[in-house]
């Protein structure tokens, strides 16, 4: 295991309801952190439902694990669109990128959504390329930039799973002997099959699955039929099935295990993964995707994709040299460091005691983390509520200040009603007054006041002429939301 600092892996679960953070100890190679928090994504488009919630969730994951935001990260996204294509002619990188973007845009998924693409050369003029919505990958990149987290790559889950299988040794024999083996990845909406010659990808396919309440047994049968058509007469040394589905269980999949004589099933869900709070004693500490993302740059024999609009692939190398420079700087200041050690020597016993207390607190905290999910979402709702109330108050204050500035001396106010009935409803405004001159100046007021309170359009209503007991003529009027019931005159005296 290299002593070089490893990145954090941030994996979006295939069920699109949680985000997982995984970190290894670079010295021991042991799993150091594996936690997750809820964050919803659109099932069909893979788009994050709320950008602010996504940003806050990433920040909370770092804070929960006490990881500095300067620690680089690899973001792993669920598979969305992969295809093989034959391109016998020689292309430059720019020409190939243009050709693959044009190819992806033939499909319905990218009719109105420009694709971000990357590819793997499979040899003999064959390419495996993947596409994701460019607007969405740019959104992820900007979130990490805002948090000041160095983003090394936006990785595809299938390749992260391959890397995870290598790290845990499941396919070590196949890699050593260059044997032919197969990986089948199942999610709620699709499945992906990859036939490997050792570490090299030979053939792949992916296909959508029936959704909308289909029975699990029929889905398994659909997978089996498509799998058999794709495999045909292949002689495989091993088949590894990774089940990321939330409604197809291991029991149903076991019924189809004779697809290959040597089959390994790995089921990844909220009950089997230790990183999920629902799994008190998970079969696995974290997902293969989360583990594979950490080794994005460490296993060059495994193909990798990167959806970053501008690749951050060299960022880890830059950070490594920066680390080396800092190390030599530390050596140069060794004398000062040793002096500080002497000063702090008298506090070692206290620090050891504090470390022991911290470990006890950490153990108690781990038992309470099941409540973090609801607390996290409630905190975000509370912040949104507070912001909405403050914004409404500021708009109302600006409205009253502007009204005081624009009203004329011969016009006076009798009543102002402002009410907010809900966040999704416009603020209700009603201003009543009188004027002794013509209504021309009053009719100008909505133009001067509109736009101050959001989603509220004002108009003059209920204007009427009245007289005082001594015969003085005046006008009554009201300004309120467009379409509201007109104001009625209530008397003849000013």
Nutshell version of this structure?
It contains 13 helices and 17 strands.
How many helices? The count is 13
Strand content: 15-25%
Strands of the largest sheet, in order across it? 3-2-1-4-8
Integer tally of domains: 2
Overall structural class, as computed from helix and strand content, comes to: alpha+beta
Give start-end ranges of low-pLDDT stretches.
Answer: 311-325, 488-494
The radius of gyration over CA amounts to: 32 Å
CATH level 4 superfamily of the largest domain: eRF1 domain 2
CATH topology of the largest domain: Nucleotidyltransferase, domain 5
CATH architecture of the largest domain: 2-Layer Sandwich
The secondary-structure element order is EEEHEEHEEHEHHEEEHEHEHHHHHEEHEE
Quaternary state reads single chain
How does the SSE layout of this entry go?
Layout (H helix, E strand, L loop, with lengths): L7 E5 L5 E7 L6 E8 L12 H14 L8 E5 L4 E5 L6 H12 L10 E9 L2 E8 H14 L3 E6 H11 L4 H6 L2 E7 L3 E8 L2 E9 L7 H16 L7 E5 L6 H5 L8 E5 L20 H7 L20 H18 L1 H11 L3 H21 L3 H35 L4 E9 L8 E8 L4 H10 L8 E10 L5 E9 L13
Parallel strand pairs: 1-4, 4-8, 9-12, 12-13
Antiparallel strand pairs: 1-2, 2-3, 5-7, 6-7, 9-10, 10-11, 14-15, 15-17, 16-17
Helix pairs in contact: 1-3, 4-8
């Amino acid at each position: 295991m290299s002593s070089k600092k490893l990145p954090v892996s941030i994996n979006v679960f295939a069920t699109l309801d949680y985000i997982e953070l995984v970190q290894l100890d670079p010295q021991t190679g042991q799993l150091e952190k594996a936690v997750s928090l809820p964050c919803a994504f659109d099932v069909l488009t893979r788009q994050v439902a709320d950008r602010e919630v996504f940003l806050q969730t990433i920040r909370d994951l770092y804070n929960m694990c006490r990881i500095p935001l300067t620690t680089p990260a690899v973001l792993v996204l669920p598979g969305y669109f992969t295809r093989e294509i034959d391109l016998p002619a020689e292309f430059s990188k720019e020409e190939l990128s243009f050709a693959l973007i044009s190819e992806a845009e033939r499909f319905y998924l990218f009719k109105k959504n420009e694709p971000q693409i990357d590819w793997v050369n499979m040899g003999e003029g064959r390419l495996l390329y993947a596409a994701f919505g460019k607007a969405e990958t740019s959104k992820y990149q900007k979130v990490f930039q805002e948090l000041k987290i160095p983003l090394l790559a936006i990785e595809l889950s299938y390749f992260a799973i391959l890397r995870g299988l290598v790290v845990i040794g499941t396919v070590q024999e196949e890699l050593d002997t260059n044997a032919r083996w197969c990986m089948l990845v199942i999610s709620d909406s699709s499945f992906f099959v990859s036939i490997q010659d050792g570490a090299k990808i030979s053939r792949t396919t992916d296909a959508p699955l029936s959704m909308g309440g289909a029975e699990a047994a029929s889905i398994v049968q659909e997978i089996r039929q498509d799998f058999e058509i794709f495999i045909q007469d292949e002689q495989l040394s091993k088949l590894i099935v990774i089940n990321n589905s939330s409604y197809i269980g291991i029991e149903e999949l076991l019924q189809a295990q004779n697809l290959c004589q040597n089959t390994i099933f790995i089921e990844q869900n909220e009950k089997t993964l230790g990183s999920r709070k629902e799994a008190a004693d998970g079969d696995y500490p974290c997902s293969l995707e989360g583990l594979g993302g950490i080794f994005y740059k460490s296993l060059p024999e495994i193909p990798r994709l990167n959806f970053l609009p501008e690749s951050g692939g060299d960022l880890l190398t830059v950070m490594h040299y920066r680390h080396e420079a800092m190390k030599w700087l530390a050596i140069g200041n060794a004398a000062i460091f040793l002096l500080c050690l002497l000063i702090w020597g008298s506090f070692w016993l206290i620090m050891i005691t504090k470390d022991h207390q911290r470990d006890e607190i950490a153990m108690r905290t781990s038992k309470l983390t099941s409540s973090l999910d609801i607390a996290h979402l409630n905190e975000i709702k509370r912040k949104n509520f507070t912001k909405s109330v403050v914004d409404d108050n500021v708009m109302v204050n600006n409205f009253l200040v502007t009204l005081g500035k624009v009203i004329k001396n011969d016009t006076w106010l009798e009543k102002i009603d402002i009410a907010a009935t809900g966040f999704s409803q416009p603020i209700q405004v009603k201003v009543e007054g009188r004027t002794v001159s013509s209504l021309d100046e009053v009719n100008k007021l909505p133009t001067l006041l509109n736009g101050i309170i959001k989603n509220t359009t004002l108009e003059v209503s209920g204007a009427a002429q009245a007289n005082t007991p001594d015969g003085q003529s005046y006008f009554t009027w009201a300004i309120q939301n467009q379409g509201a019931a007109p104001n009625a005159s209530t008397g003849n005296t000013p």
